[in-house]
TrEMBL record:
It comes from Prunus persica (Peach). PANTHER family: PROPROTEIN CONVERTASE SUBTILISIN/KEXIN. GO terms for cellular component: extracellular region. GO terms for biological process: proteolysis. Residues 6-55 form the Peptidase S8/S53 domain. Residues 126-227 form the Subtilisin-like protease fibronectin type-III domain. It comes from the Eukaryota. One of its GO terms (molecular function) is serine-type endopeptidase activity. Belongs to the peptidase S8 family. The keyword Signal applies. This is Subtilisin-like protease fibronectin type-III domain-containing protein. Keywords: Signal. It is found in: Secreted. It holds the Pfam family fn3_6.
């Protein structure tokens, strides 16, 4: 395709993974089944898929990747569909501001006036995703703080307790440790602190993985945690 002469607004490249039709089908079921959710945004559907995946196959064995190795937490997360994380178009604006885009460039994307000096900036990890992706290392002495807001789409009266698998060489705290809902669509925000331990990333282990799981008497909702130890970068 000659990009200098084309008026096309998009291009299709070969090599798309088979995950695309699979996920498209799941998204279609969520939109059109007998328990459909036609009002759900793409972000809500993404959250539903990520937090309801299973780590075991039908034989009760760990799911493997294309090399027949056990798939890791970067690929899989186990949960039931009762809590949902939402994210809106407005939530991306401070992230774009923090990614060194100019006001004018962001306005082209959002089709609205944007002033980054008023909006402020956030790192990628602060986006309300159903996962945590952290970059840190032994040179990082400050804690990283993030929040997530979840909406109850399960039973009106629900209580979820924290179950935490802390990644290698990391310290974590979560507040509150109990989420108590009294109605459907109620939202609760929880706060997560990450801090690298001494020697993180210097023992030959380049990354860590874990999960943050909310468990009720009937359901559990899990967000995977991925940590990259980069001792050559300075985080801001």
């Amino acid at each position: 395709m000659d990009w200098t002469q084309s008026n096309a607004t998009f291009n299709i490249m070969s090599g798309t993974s088979m995950s695309c039709p699979h996920l498209s089908g799941i998204a279609g079921l969520l939109k059109s089944s007998h328990e459909s959710h036609p009002d759900w945004s793409p972000a809500a559907i993404k959250s539903a898929i990520m937090t309801s995946a299973n780590v075991l196959n039908l034989a009760g064995m760990p799911i493997v990747d294309q090399m027949l190795n056990r798939a890791d937490v970067l690929q899989l997360v186990q949960a039931m569909l009762t809590l949902r994380k939402k994210i809106t178009q407005e939530d991306y604006i401070p992230y774009l501001c923090g990614s060194n885009y100019t006001d004018k460039q962001i306005q082209i994307i959002t089709q609205k006036t944007v002033n980054c000096s008023q909006v402020g900036v956030i790192p990628e990890a602060q986006l309300n995703y159903p996962s945590f992706s952290i970059t840190t290392g032994s040179n990082e002495t400050e804690s990283q703080y993030y929040t997530r807001t979840v909406r109850n789409i399960g039973p009106a009266s629900s209580t979820y307790n924290l179950d935490l698998l802390v990644p290698h060489k990391m310290g974590m705290s979560v507040k509150p440790e109990v989420l108590t809902f009294t109605e459907v669509n109620q939202e609760i925000t929880y706060h997560v602190e990450f801090i690298a331990e001494d020697g993180a990333g210097k023992d030959g282990v380049a990354f860590g993985q874990g999960y943050l799981r909310w468990v009720s008497d009937k359901h559990n909702v899990t967000s995977p945690i991925s940590v990259i130890f980069d001792n050559h970068s300075i985080l801001i």
